[in-house]
């Protein structure tokens, strides 16, 4: 009987320790809903932030449109790092955020191919050997909008629109390009500058005069279990010199 009571006592202590440990881990985690174009930059940002503050981060990657829908449905995200200002403004106007959205960077568009023999150019998109052109879906992923603007700017949209293959996010668009399911495609410059992709394939910058500035915004989400202090620490880190330097490294412009 004494042994049973002893084991019961020890088990109770062990369970209490485990629960306490889990709760502490949960408290220290920030959940950051992140637009897919920011995947690689966010990995470096969160690593640097955790090293500096001790606050751990979990990143949820998807298209900005899908993340917005999830937040409206109650997904417990602490911060939303979007690929545009439209969706953060939508959340702000609906009362989901602590303050108005703020631009943290301007994105840049590139034309990229993983086929060695292909040297990307706008005119090449008209060539008969180019049968599939990858781009993000403008209905869910903001980077699809400047792609359409570029094609219309150069007056080739109607000629090549049947070649367009739409990814639901930049991540899926990149899959079309890297697997060569599409001979060529439009993506974020941050992708081709990432450590995992840098030096692979051929790419060119798209003239920034051919599309409207890609204003990328951030908001803090209300009513989650994470303290506002921790949320604001990451928010402020993103706008710090260290945070902005990381964004510049991945091809984003931070000249506001």
UniProtKB/TrEMBL annotation:
Superkingdom of this entry's organism?
Bacteria
**In the UniProt record, does the keyword Metal-binding occur?**
yes
The residue range of the signal peptide is 1-25
Name the positions where molybdate binds: 64, 170
Write out the GO biological process terms: molybdate ion transport
Q: Which GO molecular-function terms appear in the entry?
A: metal ion binding; molybdate ion binding
Q: Which SUPFAM superfamilies match?
A: Periplasmic binding protein-like II
| Gene3D superfamilies in alphabetical order | Periplasmic binding protein-like II (3.40.190.10)
CDD domains, sorted: PBP2_AvModA
Q: Which UniProt keywords apply?
A: Metal-binding, Molybdenum, Signal
Family indicated by similarity: Belongs to the bacterial solute-binding protein ModA family.
Q: What's this protein's name? A: Molybdate transport system substrate-binding protein
């Amino acid at each position: 009987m004494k042994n049973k009571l002893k084991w019961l006592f020890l088990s109770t202590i062990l369970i209490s320790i485990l629960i306490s440990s889990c709760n502490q881990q949960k408290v220290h985690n920030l959940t950051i809903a992140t637009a897919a174009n920011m995947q690689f930059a966010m990995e470096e940002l969160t690593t640097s932030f955790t090293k500096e503050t001790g606050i751990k981060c979990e990143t949820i990657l998807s298209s900005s449109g899908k993340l917005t829908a999830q937040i409206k449905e109650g997904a417990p995200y602490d911060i939303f790092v979007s690929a545009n200002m439209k969706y953060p403004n939508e959340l702000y106007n609906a009362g989901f955020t602590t303050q108005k959205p703020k631009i943290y960077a301007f994105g840049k568009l590139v034309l990229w191919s993983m086929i060695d023999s292909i040297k990307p150019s706008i005119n090449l998109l008209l060539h008969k050997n180019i049968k599939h052109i990858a781009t993000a879906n403008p209905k869910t992923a903001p980077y699809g909008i400047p792609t359409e603007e570029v094609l219309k700017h150069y007056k080739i949209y109607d000629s090549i629109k049947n070649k367009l293959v739409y990814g639901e996010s930049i991540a899926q668009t990149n899959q079309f390009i890297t697997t060569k399911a599409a001979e060529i495609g439009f993506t974020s410059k941050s992708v081709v500058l990432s450590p995992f992709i840098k030096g692979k394939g051929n790419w060119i910058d798209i003239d920034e005069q051919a599309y409207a500035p890609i204003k990328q915004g951030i908001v803090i989400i209300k009513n989650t279990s994470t303290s506002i202090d921790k949320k604001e620490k990451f928010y402020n880190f993103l706008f710090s010199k260290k945070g902005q330097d990381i964004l510049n490294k991945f091809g984003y412009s931070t000249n506001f």
